[in-house]
Amino acid sequence: MIKLSQRAWNNVIIVSMLMLIMLFNFSSDFLNGSSDEASSLFTLVPANMTITTITFEQQKVERIGQGWRATSGVYSNQRLASLVEQWMNAEINLFEQSPNWQLPTSTVKLWFAGQALPIEYQFMQLADKTLVKINQKTYLLISPNYQLLTLSE
User: Fold this and answer.
1) What is the 3-state secondary structure (H, E, C) of the chain?
2) Which residue ranges run through the membrane (predicted)?
3) Are 73 and 60 in contact (CB under 8 A)?
4) From 3, 70, 89, 93, which residue has the greatest number of CB atoms within 10 Å?
5) Per residue in 7-52, pLDDT tens?
6) Which of 63, 86, 64, 91 is nearest to 152 (CA)?
7) Rounded to 5°, angle at Cα 105 from 71 and 153
8) Which of 101, 87, 104, 102 is nearest to 141 (CA)?
9) Sheet holding 60-64, edge to edge
10) Cα separation, 99 vs 64, whole angstroms
11) Domain residue spans of the chain
């Protein structure tokens, strides 16, 4: 056995633990078996962003404390929380074709905590598909359907 002081053995243990952490961190893709399909899906709302306001063409949904309220006052807090949850979990995929965006079906603006300007989402129905334009890029809405992302009954 190698004769090292207590302090030297502590350093050996610390360095070996750091090497193990790095090994686990870099091998996560290898162990999880990442697939091309999963990597091509994105979420409609950027990860780790907190929605503070959603502005539809005729309606506005605002975060009030831990709840939500609509400007019309017609919708319950539970319905509005469900709407925000649908937005957070919505999946999109990059759409390779470039459709004609002269007249979008609807436009929705989302404000996020810590950001001064909103992100604008333009939706367009194209046959049986719903397309979303975000920052000059076109995406295909995978799930949920467009009606679940609006306040229409």
Assistant:
1) CCCCCHHHHHHHHHHHHHHHHHHHHHCHHHHHCCCHHHHHEEECCCCCCCEEEEECCCCEEEEECCEEEECCCCCCHHHHHHHHHHHHHCEEEECCCCCCCCCCCEEEEEEECCCCCCEEEEEEEECCEEEEEECCEEEEEEECCHHHHCCCC
2) 7-26
3) no
4) 70
5) 999 999 999 999 999 888 888 766 666 554 445 778 888 888 899 9
6) 86
7) 45
8) 87
9) 41-43, 91-94, 137-143, 129-134, 119-126, 106-112, 51-55, 60-64, 67-70
10) 38
11) 1-34, 36-149
At 101 the pLDDT is 63
Residue pLDDT, tens place only, 57-116: 888 999 998 899 998 888 888 999 999 999 998 999 888 876 666 666 788 999 999 888
Neighbours of 55 (CB within 10 A): 17
Query: In the chain, pLDDT over 70 holds for what percent of residues?
Result: 87
